[in-house]
Task: inverse folding
């Protein structure tokens, strides 16, 4: 080999090693800020706070019940798909308590930000690509509401689907591999069987690629469809077989689809009656639309037509998915963050000369400002020690009530409207499948309240714990408690009643 050839080979090797080192530094940086942000904002399961949470407490308790041999939807019920309960069960097989689930949350978030950085660098090809995962992490944490929600876990698969889309659109041939079509089917099923509302972005990816393929390469469409269906079957078939073997297939479908539809319908009706949206929710939607619109305009200016159409479709469909939830819960907006990440990539890709110049000259300053803002939000919004103090008081009070119940009678406790975390804190399993927030669930399904009342009068559980005194507005249950039960204790965690002998 000539000296010139050796020099060229050495130069290529140096550039490769330098790029690898730079990427490793970025990944380490993203890993550190992910760990810090998730410690503070994923506070439901974070060891820094361990609040457990309302919905998160339900998933934890149902996951724990699975590890003890319980049957989904029959032992305990919630109107979500089975995947979220399996996600909460698997870590608890290894580590007792919520810490294992939090570790899984951190891993999912780190994979998400790493993939987003790789995608952003593919489009932008400058160090400013690191801003995209930082924006995603920052925005998601602000909407996380404590974490351990279907939206949070589902976003990982939405981002992986987005990665397939970007790799497809950047490919000159615009061809999917068989494995990519298969994975899109897998991701769609995984998210659908957590919560159907959250599949919006994946559905747009599949729809966009499908329409393009049918229009320009119809001969390849059948192969994509076959592998996509195979991916769907890979997840859905074992789920159906598992639930069929457990004898609760109909209950699973009811919880995943039918009950969710009733819930959304009731929520939309409530929204129509309400003129005002929560201001934070409204501001967040406004920001989402603004950043998407600006990215849309930049793509239009540069005639980046495929990205323009995809971004517009994604923005609208994801927003509809948020709205169809029927309530102004801030964690619903988590599913909008992959679209915000895509919009950020496209803004950087088609940035103005002034923006490119500014980022080139002041990149370190931009990163420092972003870190400073994140740090401020950790202090002003995260408030980990304040949250820890509040939940510690609740845990202490819950344990005081739980201590009245003898060990041998802990499987005879019926809860009415108490948070699921009350049972989790006391290491108990409720004796009825509709075990929490019954009055709220009954708004979308009156049969739930009827079932609760029938259970109490027919089975007469030894203990009843309620969030409101004497079951609040459930007058039937109130009369039952007043006649057949005596109050044993009360505190800020609830009211405890024992059946009269």
Result:
């Amino acid at each position: 080999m000539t000296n010139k050839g050796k020099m060229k080979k050495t130069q290529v090797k140096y550039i490769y090693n330098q790029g690898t080192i730079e990427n490793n530094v970025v990944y380490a940086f993203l890993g550190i800020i992910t760990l810090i942000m998730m410690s503070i904002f994923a506070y439901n399961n974070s060891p820094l706070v361990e609040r457990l949470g309302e919905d998160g407490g339900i998933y934890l308790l149902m996951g724990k019940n699975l590890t003890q041999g319980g049957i989904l939807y029959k032992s305990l019920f919630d109107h979500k798909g089975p995947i979220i309960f399996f996600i909460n069960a698997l870590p608890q097989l290894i580590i007792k308590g919520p810490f294992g689930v939090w570790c899984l949350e951190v891993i999912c978030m780190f994979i998400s930000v790493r993939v987003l950085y790789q995608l952003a660098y593919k489009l932008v090809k400058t160090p400013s690509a690191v801003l995209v995962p930082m924006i995603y992490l920052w925005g998601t944490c602000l909407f996380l509401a404590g974490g351990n929600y279907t939206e949070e876990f589902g976003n990982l698969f939405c981002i992986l689907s987005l990665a397939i889309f970007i790799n497809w659109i950047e490919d000159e041939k615009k061809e999917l591999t068989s494995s990519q079509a298969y994975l899109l089917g897998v991701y769609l099923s995984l998210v659908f069987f957590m919560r159907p509302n959250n599949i919006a972005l994946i559905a747009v990816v599949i729809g966009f690629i499908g329409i393009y393929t049918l229009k320009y390469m119809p001969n390849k469409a059948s192969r994509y469809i076959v592998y996509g269906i195979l991916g769907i079957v890979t997840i859905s078939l074992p789920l159906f077989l598992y639930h069929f073997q457990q004898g609760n297939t109909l209950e699973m479908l009811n919880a995943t689809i039918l009950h969710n539809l009733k819930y959304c319908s009731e929520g939309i009706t409530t929204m129509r009656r309400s003129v005002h949206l929560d201001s934070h929710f409204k501001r967040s939607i406004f920001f989402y639309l603004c950043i998407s619109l600006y990215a849309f305009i930049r793509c239009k200016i540069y005639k980046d037509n495929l990205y323009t159409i995809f971004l517009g479709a994604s923005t609208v469909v994801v927003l509809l998915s948020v709205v169809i939830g029927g309530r102004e819960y801030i964690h619903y907006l988590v599913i909008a963050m992959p679209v915000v990440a895509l919009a950020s990539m496209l803004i950087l890709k088609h940035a103005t000369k002034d923006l490119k110049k500014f980022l080139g000259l002041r990149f370190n300053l931009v990163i420092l400002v972003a870190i400073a803002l994140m740090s401020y939000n950790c202090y002003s919004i995260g408030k980990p020690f304040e949250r820890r103090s509040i939940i510690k008081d609740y845990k202490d009070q819950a344990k005081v009530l739980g201590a009245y119940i003898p060990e041998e009678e802990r499987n005879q406790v019926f809860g009415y409207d108490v948070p699921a975390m009350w049972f989790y804190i006391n290491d108990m399993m409720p004796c009825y499948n509709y075990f929490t927030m019954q009055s709220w669930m009954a708004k979308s399904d009156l049969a739930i309240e009827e079932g609760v009342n029938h259970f109490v009068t027919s089975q007469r559980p030894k203990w009843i714990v309620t969030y409101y005194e004497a079951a609040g507005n459930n007058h039937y249950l109130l009369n039952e408690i007043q006649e057949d039960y005596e109050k044993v204790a009360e505190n800020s965690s609830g009211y405890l009643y024992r059946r009269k002998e």
